[in-house]
Amino acid sequence: MKRLAIILALTLAGCAAGAPAPNAGRADAPVLRIVADPDANGRRPVAVDVVRVADPALAGRLAGLDAAGWFRDREALSAEAGSRIAIASWEMVPGQSVVLHSLPPFATLPIQTLVYARYGTPGAHRQTLDGAGALDVRLGRESFTVAPLTEGTP
Fold this sequence. Notes:
The protein is α+β, with helices and mostly antiparallel strands. It contains three helices and eight strands, in the order H-E-E-H-H-E-E-E-E-E-E. The strands form two sheets. Strands 4-1-7-8 form a four-stranded mixed sheet, with no helix packed on it. It has a four-stranded antiparallel sheet with strand order 3-2-5-6. Strand 7 and strand 8 form a beta hairpin. The radius of gyration is 19 Å and the shape is globular.
């Protein structure tokens, strides 16, 4: 019996030894990094929302909203969407950076992640990524970028 348990343990360990995804399996791996340049938003704070969506129709609707519309209607949209949406919010000051190793739990696997940033300049100020991978958000003077966060990203 003991021999069977050892064989089973070795077999399961071998099955788990495939190539890991970036940051996978590391408890300390970041899932979100937000970096605000020193002159971000004309040296004014930037509100940032990371929105994870589990419903394709809702994702399409949100992808059509600019940041002004999102921040105006956020509470109503969140109430309407229920468990199909998860929102994490920050107020970033120029020069600040944040690295998170977890986000609030989300019951369903997100199909899309949107990032909205409230800038003082006109524009959509919205970025969209498929899935729920780790994110690297860079806040610049008049706009921002979002890219997948990889282990080697400075």
